[in-house]
Amino acid sequence: MKGARKNTFLEPEKVLVLPLPFQRSKKLDFI
Length: 31
Prior knowledge:
Elements: H1 2-10, H2 12-17, H3 20-30
């Protein structure tokens, strides 16, 4: 999951494009 988190940090725009449920999961992981 570390790689995914790093990817999210490097590409925030991608997170915005992702579906709502996935985005919420990423947000929880990021926090």
